[in-house]
Amino acid sequence: MAPQATEPAPIGATDNLSIARAARLWPIEEIAHQLGLPGEAVEPYGRGIAKLDLSAMKALNGHPRGRYVVVTSMTPTPPGEGKTTTAIGLVQGLQRLGHTATVALRQPSMGPTLGLKGGATGGGYSQVLPMERINLHLTGDLHAVGAAHNLLSAMVDNHLHHRLSPELDPREIYWQRVIDLNDRALRHIVLGLGGRGDGVARQGSFEITAASEVMAVLALADSLADLRQRLGRLVVGLDREGEAVTAEQIGAAGAMTVLLKEALKPNLLQTLEHAPALIHAGPFGNIAHGNSSIIADYIGLSTSDFLITEAGFGADMGAERFFNIKCRASGLTPDAAVVVVTVRALKYHSGRHAVVAGQPLPASLLAEHPEEIYEGGANLLKQIDNVRAHGLNPVVAINAFPGDHPSEYAAIRDLAASVSVRAEVSTHVRDGGGGSQALAEAVAEAAEGEKDFRFLYSDELPLASKIERIATRIYGAEGVDFAPQAHERLNVWQRQGYGSLPVCIAKTHLSLSSDPTRLGAPAGWRLPVREVRLSAGAGFVYALAGDIRTMPGFSTSPAATRIDIDESGETVNLY
Amino acid sequence: MAPQATEPAPIGATDNLSIARAARLWPIEEIAHQLGLPGEAVEPYGRGIAKLDLSAMKALNGHPRGRYVVVTSMTPTPPGEGKTTTAIGLVQGLQRLGHTATVALRQPSMGPTLGLKGGATGGGYSQVLPMERINLHLTGDLHAVGAAHNLLSAMVDNHLHHRLSPELDPREIYWQRVIDLNDRALRHIVLGLGGRGDGVARQGSFEITAASEVMAVLALADSLADLRQRLGRLVVGLDREGEAVTAEQIGAAGAMTVLLKEALKPNLLQTLEHAPALIHAGPFGNIAHGNSSIIADYIGLSTSDFLITEAGFGADMGAERFFNIKCRASGLTPDAAVVVVTVRALKYHSGRHAVVAGQPLPASLLAEHPEEIYEGGANLLKQIDNVRAHGLNPVVAINAFPGDHPSEYAAIRDLAASVSVRAEVSTHVRDGGGGSQALAEAVAEAAEGEKDFRFLYSDELPLASKIERIATRIYGAEGVDFAPQAHERLNVWQRQGYGSLPVCIAKTHLSLSSDPTRLGAPAGWRLPVREVRLSAGAGFVYALAGDIRTMPGFSTSPAATRIDIDESGETVNLY
Questions:
Q1: Distance separating alpha carbons of residues B336 and B390, to the nearest angstrom
Q2: Closest CA in chain B for residue A247
Q3: Using CA atoms, how far apart are residues A279 and A271, in angstroms rounded to an integer?
């Protein structure tokens, strides 16, 4: 077991770009045609992209329903374990086995793309195209969410300015503004300065667009009418009597709906191997549920043998919300779940290595040490258990990297087998669908197999108990410590009729616990809930169990300083 | 001459909507095909809309150049005189005469659409479709302008936060933020509050997106490479030594260009009579030049016998900038100009009536009084003279309204004939192209006739003298009173090498003078210039000669409170 001094060259960003550039897209109408979508439901939006009219859903009623598969992961390292590439590889693998399969993904935020990390369109030979459009405006859905959100913001301040009824309390306005950029200087502002004609002075804030409740609403709405009603329920603040004031009362919900009409139509694209990809909505994975849209899933399930979707962060986060928030809203039940792992993440969870996002992996992490797989394996076993808590037996996908050692794969298989779970190595980044066929076979088998999907908690369970249920059963906490005000608020909402909503816990994604430095499957800890908030439009209550940033900042050297065009007009350094 | 008590029902907003709904769009590929555009240059963006790849320009090199016609107007009343409908009617009329003709228009701002007035897609039987998409997001160009603008803003504050070199002076940052909404509470803000990690506290502001210099840049760029260079020249503020700092120095210009790549492609749509319409860019008509894009005009002129474009506000404003800023940047020379008038505007300029935007016209204005046409005629004669100052003899288009009296049309013809100008009544709103054929004939004749286009001033004329030249020759002022600081700044820019730029004067559009209450052709006044600003990227200096709002506010009852969807999902009250 000779230690390796440096990381072997993986398929990196430059390769992603050259692979993407060399690819030949099929006309998007052809992809839609393969899905059996009626031509009038398909609206091309530039090369290789179409919006799907919601009439597509109606036209498809009665068609056989496909298998519904969610891709989640063990607790990730800061750079992530490749859920997106695995989901894309998986549809390509299923396609090679003769199935029709569609992948449904979130739209990446533009701010982070211009900041640190580049986009989220997969990598290597498991990418969705065209990369440049996906990573920037796509078809403008994020802009529409921002416009609808900020229209309500402007109307709230206009309401205050003209002292319209019900009279808002300027100290109790919860509805902030959003922008799809990393702009730390807008985290805390005072607005309404100037003269009498320039609004009412008060504190305010901007968050990144993905954090908008409007984004969560877009992802959870199952029709235009449902969208309209959810927007009407958004709570913007309190009036002088302390009563909640909604977007309906401000008179904004209708115009917001109209602004979102195009955005409600899912975007159809294709993978490198021409499998259909639906990219639609991108809510935050902590203060919101972190899953792509219900409407995209409906369409995919009506048109394909398999609909593969990705849920943000680890199984304790995105998958838990997928099961308990998204499936509750949609009425759909999943048929299988995939837990993505990497050799490096399992070894990282041994606690023997430090990994920092944006920096090269430490050489020690890349050396052959199968025993570290077992040391970090508690995390995988817990996340498998988290999926099983919802009645599904997951498949483990080992996302292969060039530096991996066969002995370490064997250790992962052994770990998984110890709890009767199948684990398959997938080389989809290097080999496309050809590298994920074993995984695809395992997933297809799991989807056909026995399962007994169930929610983690009933609607009737009180809000505080729902939070406790997730904390103890999923995170492995011994209990929850509510700040007194948080507990009080939950009781108020319980009395006001919001008690049947599901809950969303905003905590770090880097640990099963609320402390990002605690790896593996931490025990002997309690979840601190310092604040709770109501997303009445999206339809959940969220609890803050950590310091969650809703507006990132640029570094001293953001990606945007390198992104440019070359002499032939081609974009450079965007990936 | 019996006075009429109420205004006869014109073709109003409801009719506009029902006419638009009843229309059957042709596939946009068919419109593009008629123009001889190569298929690969046409990218459909939803039904009835396509973006035109800039390769369309290259492919068309060597094709015969069409006639270039600008539509301007006399000094308008607050509700406007119908330049947009006239421009649309005119292409339809030209088409009926057997010519190919394309209309190029600005994209309307979303904020005002949601606020007071509805959109800007024409009216009656002279509309561009699809109305709903044009008035809201269209293909996202305004959002892209906002994103590019605000990326630079975020990078400026990031630069300040990390104290990057050159070190910015936080008290001398001119680059604000933008949003495409009416949001008065953002006119004056303090940003960068919070803790050490949340930026540097300073004053700031939001303007409406149409007021962004990036929008003016988009309209004036003639290629992707030119766009890149103009963005690099944007001045964001001063460093600690008082030197100008550019977007290039901040490192933002490349990423801004990439964000604007799709937006640089003009949007092809169609009129109700299937004439091609290019809707592209929408810079402000006062602090910027108020004209649609140069690239759209290039494409239209390469593919049609006539390219008709509209310039914002009256001939003293939009047309003057069209001639001296836009044509200077493009190198194109206009072949004809149309001055739109209405009976009501001429009578309004008699000074006998009060007209308020959004309120019904006073009954007195609608009564038959041809003598008032002559009383208000000084304004028309001056605006005709303003066009002639650039070497073109205009055609007067009388935009017909249902309450008009033939005696008043005769008075207008008589007035125009007194200065050897042809005036034609156009009923394009009621009759489509069939109602504008006489106008179209007059325009075609003028375009074929003799002309001697010239700029109003040479590049070499000093900046202050350029402002004086416009004020005295076009506005009819006796001179210009510069605030001392304004004069000093002009001298500084002159020394720094900006002296060859054209100038743009921001004054009220409701009077030839700087006082909106002075009608007709005011004499005996001087233009006060209180401040001057440099738009180094767009390539002009602008002078503030009035109180110009760059961020509107909503009223107590904005249009957005009525815009909604009905039970079948159709949009209501958007027009």
A1: 11
A2: B561
A3: 11
**Best residue in A563, A566, A571, A573 for a mutation probing chain B (most B CBs within 10 Å):** A563
Instruction: Identify all chain B residues contacting A155, using CB atoms and an 8 Å cutoff.
Output: 554, 558, 560-561
**Residue B78 is assigned to a ligand binding site:** yes
Among chain A residues, CA nearest to B52: A46
Instruction: Mutate one of A158, A167, A260 to test the B interface: name it (highest B CB count within 10 A).
Output: A158
Would you say A481 and A526 are in contact if contact means Cβ atoms under 8 Å apart?
yes
Query: The complex's ipTM?
Result: 0.95
3-state SS, residue B44: strand
Q: Distance between CA atoms of B361 and A336, rounded to whole angstroms? A: 67
Considering CB atoms only, which of A137, A158, A253 is closest to B558? A158
A78 labelled ligand-binding: yes
The string of pLDDT tens digits covering residues A262-299 is: 999 999 999 999 999 999 999 988 889 999 999 999 99
Q: Would you state the pLDDT for residue B12? A: 60
Q: Where are the beta strands (DSSP E) in B427-539?
A: 479-482, 503-506, 526-529, 531-535
- Which residues of chain B neighbour A140 with C-beta distances below 8 Å? 137, 139-140, 143
What are the residues whose beta carbons fall under 8 Å from the beta carbon of B163, sequence distance 6 or more?
none
A to B CB pairs, distance under 8 Å: 235
How far lies A487's CA from each of A195, A457, A462, A480, in Å?
A: 41, 19, 11, 11
The model's pLDDT over B543-552, given as tens digits with 9 standing for 90+, comes to 999 888 899 9
Burial B139-161 (b: 16+ CB within 10 A, else e): bbbbbbbbbbbbbbbbbbbbbbb
Amino acid at A26: W
Q: Which residues from B are below 8 Å from A114, CB to CB?
A: 151, 255
In order of their start, the domains of chain A are: 16-140+263-448 (3.40.50.300), 141-258 (3.30.1510.10), 463-544 (3.10.410.10)
Residue contact B191–A193, C-beta within 8 A: no
Side-chain half-sphere of A343: how many Cα atoms within 13 Å? 25
The residue type found at A515 is: D
Distance CA A440, CA A428 (A): 11
Residue of B46, B182, B189 lying closest to A51 (CB–CB)? B46
A89 is in an annotated binding site: no
| Per-residue pLDDT tens over the stretch B438-453 | 999 999 999 999 889 9
Among the residues of A169-309, which ranges form H helices? 213-220, 224-233, 247-250, 253-259, 294-303
What value, to the nearest 5°, has the Cα angle with vertex B149 and ends B200 and B120? 135
Please check if B132 is assigned to a binding site.
no
Radius of gyration of chain B (CA): 23
Separation of alpha carbons B301 and B219, rounded Å: 16
Residues 6+ apart with CB under 8 A from A479: A468, A471, A472, A526, A527
Give the pTM. 0.95
> Residues 6 or more apart from A216 whose CB is under 8 A from it?
A283, A284, A288, A289, A535, A537, A538, A540
- Note whether B255 contacts A137, CB cutoff 8 Å: no
